[in-house]
Design goal:
Blueprint: H1 3-9, H2 24-35, E1 46-51, H3 54-61, E2 75-81, E3 85-87, E4 90-91, H4 93-110, H5 120-123, H6 128-135, E5 143-150
Antiparallel strand pairs: 1-2, 2-5, 3-4
Helix pairs in contact: 1-4, 2-4, 3-6
Length: about 180
């Protein structure tokens, strides 16, 4: 699949997954795609933990409350960040991990898998992410910010309708067709 096909095919999948394991080589490729993302001033604030052991995955998943409906993916990737200032007391950790997640979501689709970006659900006031991080032995100077299930979808994936290009993108001025 070329990158433009992956852009069109990518969307959040919240359905059940097939039980087929995700080969570690594919998880490695997905994580390499994430780590290839740009980072502000090359501070490389994003780190990743892939989970392919069913027992570890069950323990991590058990912390998610309310549980993610139908989330039975055979693997997952947890995204970690460190708050490192790049310059002038500016930190680009959110941009860094967001770029890494988008790269991974595209790689996931290109390899024939599905996923969903779970961030707010685990980083809300109840701090589910902290319990997940503790389960994975994540050091205190890292923050777990995202959970990406990875697996083959058990049903046909359909994304939401997108607004037409002309309603969201213009040339040379807001609302201009550029003609």
């Amino acid at each position: 699949m070329d990158v433009f096909e992956a852009f069109a095919a990518r969307h959040s999948y919240r359905g059940p997954y097939l039980p087929d394991p995700v080969p570690r080589a594919n998880l490695t490729r997905i994580m390499e795609a994430g780590l290839a993302a740009p980072s502000g001033c090359n501070k490389q604030t994003t780190s990743l933990v892939a989970i392919d052991d069913p027992e570890v995955l069950a323990r991590v998943r058990a912390h998610i409350d309310p549980p993610l409906k139908r989330e039975n993916a055979p693997a997952a990737i947890c995204v970690l960040t460190r708050r490192i200032n790049a310059y002038r007391d500016k930190c680009f950790a959110v941009q860094d991990y967001s770029a890494a997640i988008q790269n991974m979501l595209l790689a996931i689709v290109a390899l024939g898998y599905a996923s969903c970006w779970y961030e707010g659900h685990i980083t809300d006031d109840d701090r589910i992410c902290d319990r997940m991080a503790q389960e994975l032995g994540v050091p205190d100077d890292y923050e777990l910010v995202c959970y990406l299930p990875v697996g083959k979808p058990d049903r046909t994936m359909r994304g939401p309708a997108k607004a037409p290009f002309a309603e969201r993108a213009w040339f040379n001025a807001f609302g201009s067709t550029g003609e």
